[in-house]
Amino acid sequence: LEEQLAPLEPLRKLAEAARDPEAGTEARALVIALIEARGVISREEAGLQHLPKEARPFLRKLGVTFGALDIYAAPLLKPAPRRLLHALGLDPRPVNEAMLSVLAEGSWPKGRLPAGYRLAGSQAIRVDLAEKIFRAAFEARAAKPNAPHFRLDLALPISIGLVEENARRLLGSAGFRFDRARPLAEGAHGAPAPDRWSWRPRRPGENRERHEQRGKPPRQRHTEENRRDRPQGKAPPRQPATPRTPHKAPPRPTPDTGPARAGGAFDALADLLKR
Asked: In this structure, what is the dihedral angle of CA atoms 118, 38, 134, 129, given to the nearest 10 degrees?
């Protein structure tokens, strides 16, 4: 049994840290959120504004990575723990057996992105490799700290497996803006100008890729422009509420006094050990 559950050792360490009183309330709360999310949680949902900086080294020792868009436990992104979490019923999401770097369009069920991936246009990329691309982009920006624009080579995301347009969309989800260079005028000679990039921090809830992943439309902001587009006048009268039918409580199940039976994750674990 210990041998079969060995791939979930990183998850066990997180569970021990969640019970460690010396870890601090904020760090323990983040660890619990990571456990419930089975290793990956977006920064917007992690509540990092409550986490003191001195708590981050403790979490990094557990394998937790603080990425540009995601907080994740890197050891849980390997094939063995992902397959086992799925086999035990602890993570019902689709699983990519080999945890490939990039998934092609249409290789996962519609609206159900495999565990450990985020959308990149029409493809999906593993979150740790997406973070590698983001860090390279931030390094390119840091090379020219005072310039409004900088050059960015897309060789890295393309070598990982992303299509060029999807690489731009992935970078756009982290706040990088692409400015295509103007083509040479007719009759002009010489090397074309390079494409330019800029960056601005994203506002909370601005990432449309997250809404697409969950199948929800982005929330419309109430700007002056869409206020002007609204029809003027009084609001229509409210319709009277329809009376609700009283809810009847379901009958209580008959208590089971027979022998104890394994269920849920233990059934799956038993089947796993028989193989």
From this structure: -80
